[in-house]
Amino acid sequence: MGRVTYMGGPGCGQSSKIGNQIVVGANLLGLSEGLVFAELAGLDARQWMQTIRGGAAGSKVIELFGERMIMKDFRPGGFAEYMVKDMGMGIDVVEGGEEDEATAVLPGAALGKQLFSAMVANGDGHLGTQGLISVIDRINGR
Predict the structure, then answer these.
(1) What Pfam families does its record include (predicted)?
(2) What is residue 125's DSSP assignment?
(3) Residue-wise pLDDT tens digits, 101-134
(4) Cβ-contact 113, 84 below 8 angstroms
């Protein structure tokens, strides 16, 4: 677990959590696509992951989920359906902003929400978030 950090008044903690989930979702998508690409290119997935782990592509997502993704171990720490909720909340805040409020366009978060929604539609909403690779596998006919 992380440490408690005061982020501001009401709603700031929730907004911090949503921002975290947007980053985690993007990292899971990148790792999913990287692993599928590596395997389709004939690379050893573990060796590839060990190689990129120490560079700019290295992340906590690789540390926590990389091996599980290779092994197709989708036991949940957090459910994929919760990523749909969290990323959706971020997109809804952006789309529902008042005229005088700052808004942002988040195409990556929108795509992430769609891909996690595909997991739910495939009946995999109660799998762990690392199961996102299953969607990328399906798209690639695997």
Answers:
(1) NAD_binding_11
(2) T
(3) 666 789 999 999 999 999 999 999 999 999 999 9
(4) yes
